[in-house]
Design goal:
The chain is 28% helix and 27% strand. It has 106 residues and is α/β, with parallel strands linked by helices. The chain is globular and about 40 Å long.
Length: 106
C-alpha cells in the first residue's frame, strides 16, 4: 500500500513543513527503520500536527531523537511493521503487527 495517495517519505513531509510551511496532514502516522523519520515526526508535532504513532521496525533503538519524541508524548511502537493502509480519498488507518507476524492492531 505504499503507493496510495497520502503516503510519502518522512523526509518529504519534513521538507513540505520546513521549506514550504505546509503540513502534510492533521493526523500523521510514521513508519521507519531509522532515526531520520523521528526528526520529521518531531518537527510535525512541534508545528501542531498530531502524530498518531511512530512504528519502528527495529527492536530496541535508542538515541536523543527517540527520547525527544517520547518527551513530546508521541507513542512509539518498536519491533512492529505496518502491513496495510486503509482509506479511500486519504489514508485513514494503518494496520500494525509485530514484525515477526502475529496479531494485528489498527
Amino acid at each position: 500500500d505504499n503507493d496510495r495517495p497520502g503516503i510519502m517519505l518522512a523526509s518529504a513531509a519534513r521538507t513540505y513543513l520546513n521549506h514550504y510551511g505546509v503540513a502534510v496532514g492533521r493526523n500523521v502516522g510514521v513508519y521507519t527503520a531509522n532515526d531520520s523519520a523521528y526528526a520529521a515526526a518531531i518537527d510535525l508535532k512541534k508545528a501542531g500536527v498530531n502524530i498518531a504513532a511512530i512504528v519502528d521496525l527495529r527492536d530496541n533503538p535508542s538515541g536523543s531523537v527517540i527520547d525527544e519524541a517520547r518527551g513530546l508524548g508521541i507513542e512509539i511502537n518498536f519491533g512492529r511493521a505496518v502491513v496495510r493502509a486503509g482509506g479511500k480519498l486519504r489514508v485513514s488507518s494503518m494496520t500494525v503487527q509485530p514484525k515477526n507476524g502475529g496479531g494485528e492492531r489498527t
